[in-house]
Amino acid sequence: MPIAPEKDLDPGLFSLSRTLNFHLELTDKCNAGCPMCGRTVEMDRCRPNFGKVRNIELSLDVIRRNFPPDFCRRVDTIDLCGGLGDPPAARECLEICQYFIDNGIKLILSSNGGLRSEDWWGKLGDIFSSNSSFVEFHIDGLADTNHLYRINTRFSKIMANARAFLDTGANGEWHFIPFKHNQHQLAEALSLSRKMGFRSFQVIDTIRFGPSKSFVYQMPDGSIRHLEPSSGDIVSLASGKNAPQQVTKAVDSQATQPISCKSANENRPYIVADGSVSACCWVEGSDDEKHMYSRAKLSHEEHNINRRLLQEILLEEPYRRIYPQAWEEGCNPVCIRKCGLMRRNTRTEL
Ligand SMILES: C[S@@+](CC[C@H](N)C(=O)[O-])C[C@H]1O[C@@H](n2cnc3c(N)ncnc32)[C@H](O)[C@@H]1O
Ligand code: SF4
Ligand code: SF4
Fold first, then answer.
1. What is the model's pTM?
2. Which ligand sits closest to the CA of 110?
3. Full residue range of the structural domain in which residue 31 is found
4. Which of 51, 177, 272, 306 has its CA 20 to 30 A from that of 37?
5. Ligand 1 nearest atom to the CA of residue 82, by list position
6. Per-residue pLDDT at 243
7. Residue 228 belongs to domain with CATH number
8. 337 in any annotated domain
């Protein structure tokens, strides 16, 4: 269990005296080429955008140095997800998971499930089943549709990997993004997930279409496809029960909204595969973030766990007063959108 050490007098966004959580990107490498992912260029056959993707990863050494056992005791959960990569692509993924779990941390690992062998997923299952850690398998369809979004993945391999993981008794969730091309398979995927022993099935309502009704991309064979959003209340249709009502917010209004910082509320900083620390995955790399560092008269390069210790970085500006001041002044567009107007993907459990 996390312990509460000495009290911070002025904790800012992040505090070492509250239970910590982290969002951690182990790597920016990935086997897949999902057209709406930040790592791909949709009109270049969904190949990686090498302006962003550097094929980097965090090492076990760096993790050990920044997460010593006494610090781990303050950490409850780490989400191994990130913005550009698939965690199993990191060379030391298993060893890093073992290290965190040995130190009492619960892990949530997000993956397309297509990399690595059944043997590897069995080992991950053995590690994860020793506490309440789980894997989110992001599978958007069945054998004939999943690869239309999860480009370059093979459904049969994903199923074999998921079975090897679940057979160890470890917990897995199936996450499904409905589009027009796979929405008719929701009920079948739900039933398959139950048979396989997934403990939960979540439907993700994506906001990535924005106002547009179609997203054009090129398949690896050069053919052009149009990704279209799902239609109607497919959650109710698939589950036979009414979907929980989403609260409709006045999202078109740019009027000042109070900002409730998700990261500060959850005491959950973001660490990128290059080692840099950020307030969250939404502001990471944004103009908002550059603005915060320039107001703090600091170089973001100093906030990197390859160079400095995480525990020091978290208690420094811009995480103390600079972010809260910016929210008061309404000058952080990303923060207003995500934590004022709540423009986020939503999920519904079936
Ligand atoms: C960049 S991925 C990193 C983790 C892993 N590679 C994966 O896909 O699960 C981060 C998250 O983005 C989600 N994602 C990908 N395409 C999406 C879309 N069009 N709308 C909403 N979420 C999406 C993934 O399912 C995953 O939860
Ligand atoms: S599997 Fe994840 S990281 Fe890889 S392309 Fe798809 S969304 Fe991006
Ligand atoms: S978008 Fe801004 S307000 Fe929201 S979690 Fe990130 S830093 Fe906090």
1. 0.94
2. 1
3. 20-247+266-285+304-309
4. 306
5. 3
6. 53
7. 3.20.20.70
8. no
